[in-house]
Amino acid sequence: MNNKLIDLQHITKSFDGDLVLDDLDLYIRENEFLTLLGPSGCGKTTTLRIIGGFTTPDKGCVLFNGEDITNLPPNKRQLNTVFQKYALFTHMTIEDNIAFGLKIKGKTDKYIKDKIDYALNLVNLKGYGKRMPDSLSGGQQQRIAIARAIVNEPKVLLLDEPLGALDLKLRQDMQYELIRLKKDLGITFIYVTHDQEEALTMSDTIVVMNQGYIQQIGSPEDIYNEPENAFVADFIGDSNIIDAVFIHDELVSILGANFPCVDTGFGNNKPVDVVIRPEDVVLTVPEKGIITGKVTDLIFKGVHYEMSVMACGFEWLVHSTTMFPVGAEVGINVDPFNIQIMNKPASEDEEAISIEE
Amino acid sequence: MKNNKIKILTWPYLFWAVAFIVIPLLMIFYYGLTDRSGAFTFENIAAIATAEHAKALWLSLGLSLIATVICLLLGYPLASILAHLNSKTNVILFIFILPMWMNFLLRTLAWQTLLEKTGVINTILSLIGLPTINIINTGGAIVLGMVYNFLPFMVLPLYNSITKIDDDVINAARDLGADRFQTFMRVILPLTVPGIISGITMVFVPSLTSFVISTILGGSKILLIGNVIEEQFTHTGNWQLGSGLSIVLMLFIIINMICSAIFDKDSEGGVL
Question: Do A208 and A318 fall into the same domain?
Fold first, then answer.
């Protein structure tokens, strides 16, 4: 689990003068499910294409098992890709699509036939072998694209927003399917998505990217509970990001009121950003709250109520199973463990800072 | 009500089709299947078997086929190059189509001037001391004329079918282990079959029926079937024979179309 299977070192890439990746360092361990997560244009797809061999970096190198593969063409790499728009060969049957890589490698007919059966079984599409790709639904085509990649027994499977074109229900089903596949196959997955929920559900490790820089690397829990900066906090889930002053260790002044917290080492009377997740905001009667406010909006979401509370000039987003009607005066409390303190970026340019490990 | 309105809109087209397509076609068949007195006969069609006519037909088929193959061999690489240039450099496509804005006759006459015994090319060749070429009034000159005039009709459908292939489909083939040549043979070529077929049809059919190119570049020495038919209508005034030979030519065009349809179906069925 600990050896670096893929190691990207000092990768820099620009397109037409636009810097897409700037001195990116990243390694992927064997058997890891690693997700590159970020908004469009953050460089996640470019990173994946560099690993796949479809794009060559301007600077830096790609190591695979310690071997430099930076200039190796895609057909010589021990990895396979599942493309965003499936990229099936529309002039071939499903069987021929799956057999493509195996035929190129000159495998025997018997071997190929067994592999096709195995792969169709794995993606729950038994009996679809003779059909043409166009006659399948989007979800089915995507599963065939996965089957076509995995029959080649790659060390690493690259997935470029493979569920992006599917509807919500199907996407959720496919997420579980991918996790199952990952377990069955025991290979490394590198997954690209802009969907934070997808990333949280499936990954062992999430790499949050923005504007060509890595913002944070960590487990889904780390990324969600302890975002290192406002970008990560904002991008992963809903959150209240509030200007605050770090009075001294374990005490922070939010909107003029003092909240106890658990963080230390941010200095004295220093401006910081705090992140409070909407489900961590506790509403109570006004007398019991640290600050008080008024409910301005209420939506029933099924599992919980989503409320907006105007308090001390800030509109708090609150998720709670207890309902307070619009117009009600409420008190706000936050458990000290649920207040996440972050340094403010030193300047506007540093919004997208590169995190040194 | 809405349906009726649409029907009314189709009337002008229907009139056009009947007046300028169906009636002329019927007249060709009428003339082709009757003699001068109006009696029914197969003589005009059977006339293709005479040595002179048969020779013209085979020569037409042969030269058109050669021109089509050359167009395909020249056009495919050109279309791929054009398809992979970005939109800024598509000026090249524009330049390539530019000659088509000039009159067809003019372009062919220009080739005559270039290829003549004392024409531009030979003048330059003899100036720099190279042997002159004698290509005017040969089958070679006619093929050259056909290729020059009809190459764009090959390139455009090919260009369209190549640009339609998603880059990631090609990336997928490479990703699955295919080298450049295998990717071309197994993915790009089969996916461009519709373009190849329409390109072949668009070059072969006008080449087969053309008489202007052979008149100008072949002199009066080489008669193609198109020239024979033209002669019957313009000089000899034998409309019956001209129509009869036209029907035979039409048969070959229909055969070409049927072949295209079969090939197209095959490619859809994944045989290729």
Answer: no
